[in-house]
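Researcher: Last one for today. Full complex below.
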Amino acid sequence: MIVSAAQEHELILSVLTSRGARPDTADLQARWLVEADLRGQDSHGLRRLPILARRMERGLLVPNAEPVMSWAAASVLTVDGQRGFGPVTGLSAVRHAAGRARQAGIVLAAVHGANHLGILAPYTEAVADQGMIGIALTTSEALVHPSGGRTAMIGTNPVAIAVPARPDPLVLDMATGEVSMGRILRHAELGEPIPAGWAVDAAGEPTTDAAAAAAGAISPFGGGKGSGLGVALEVLVAVLTATALGRDVHGTLDAEEVCNKGDVFIVIDPAVLPGGSHLAAVSAYLEEVRATPGQAGSAGARVPGDRARAERQRRRRDGVEIPGPVWRAASALGPGAAALRDSG
Amino acid sequence: MIVSAAQEHELILSVLTSRGARPDTADLQARWLVEADLRGQDSHGLRRLPILARRMERGLLVPNAEPVMSWAAASVLTVDGQRGFGPVTGLSAVRHAAGRARQAGIVLAAVHGANHLGILAPYTEAVADQGMIGIALTTSEALVHPSGGRTAMIGTNPVAIAVPARPDPLVLDMATGEVSMGRILRHAELGEPIPAGWAVDAAGEPTTDAAAAAAGAISPFGGGKGSGLGVALEVLVAVLTATALGRDVHGTLDAEEVCNKGDVFIVIDPAVLPGGSHLAAVSAYLEEVRATPGQAGSAGARVPGDRARAERQRRRRDGVEIPGPVWRAASALGPGAAALRDSG
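Model: Here's the assembly. Have a good evening.
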């Protein structure tokens, strides 16, 4: 079914506020889910709401928690999310870091104790909107096998990088798995095979059977290099946030465990540098990439962030396509649905 | 032919000192080339010496230049290499950054005006040896085409990350191209085809003809994701160092142009964080990755840095294999060879 972003936002808001979230924290979490659906990253959209709701009911997510921040060093901020919403904690961390980056030039924010951040791009975009460079990293449950290995030992460990440019910033946002588990699950629901190279089965053998892949592990993107990058980010985030590694990570996909992954933000203010933001040169280079002749059968070369921006514009205009079961599952969590259940 | 690391080092030292390099700067540059050959990254080893020598003769490389450093902000160091050796500038930058990272927690060093850094791993290892996290980035001549594009517009843009662990640090060092141009050229020399996916020809069409690939562009690793990462790093480094982008980058592969690429180092001291270096947990996780059952036909899962370390040990013991033409070209640059030429 097709809904507007406003309709989706309203539904999420009602589900979260009916479970005790203040309007401001609920609004921020709702915006993050809607943004994911607007950009076509629907594995991080409305389908995450039931888990968030159950986590709230069980005290694994404390919707109005105030993140506790302290400066571990002049340029390093540590943030304890206190089981709050990921976007509430993450955006607070980024804003505090950005404030000090104006003087220090670079600031790192190391976050633990927050729930799932959702899509990473908007944290870095919030930084780029202020003329600064934003980098975001987060770990997740082990879903990806190392290159050459048979079992999942690495999170999907996404990285986002935003660099100011005209007319729009460069915004990279990519996981280090070849594909999301959400996409594998959708192929399984539809009974469709998955492309070779996406995943291995429970025995660690490459498979094109989506159901077998869902019981196995996602393959790293780009073979040994992508696998190495995933392992490096797993370790980097864990050290900086003193959080769990590999199969010990829980709490972003389940409603049973405290979320024990880590998040890292880096903010750099190019205004402190002699060359400033190098805006004209960077913008010209990105235009050159966009304009380069495309390979046969391809949509041409893309600048990171362009596709998500175009998807977002289209869906803001035409609406967001939400699978019926996802909309109904979310609606069933609303206060109206609860009243119906209670009286029924 | 097989030579010892000491023999290779001595040859390089004589070539560089005979062109005016002081013993200390020549030693550092020599060690960087030998390290590359020891680790099997021979595209960054002895075969780079003739270009370095010619650059010195033409004043494009000033061997005893003192890098000019200044703090642009509390945690941002800018470094002008003054046309010096890459390793001399890079290691100075890293050491200055590491000193301040003890207090600030994180420091960024932005370098311009240095010659080719050579392999990146040792800069980050020098940081990890002090119990800190090191990250290194550098741009290069445009050799890689963007995903969907036909022509080279992106540097090979490597990234290195070292994180302290026991018994050895994790050391990622990877370019964002699928393969180095050096490997393509070697296939071309031997008249061997290259695997599909490595490169495109001058018209931008995928090719397995090594000679055609050498006239074309390297493909990004990991398709759209690797391409996006390469573009993001190109822009990130250019902004931070106010250096050239894309096809405007020169001076690491030629002996005609001033080197106008940029280098970025980030040093983070985990000792400032409540969890410290998280050493036991990280080391246990990396051991688990090493021990996981391997896929059929693979050498098993690897931790970044393990292979290079093993290669290095083997070659330190058994010697370094250097192609005859590479050794002879280097030897012909030595002071003995020059004396022969002058008297001949």
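Chain B has a mean pLDDT of 96. Chain B touches chain A through 83 residues (CB under 8 Å).
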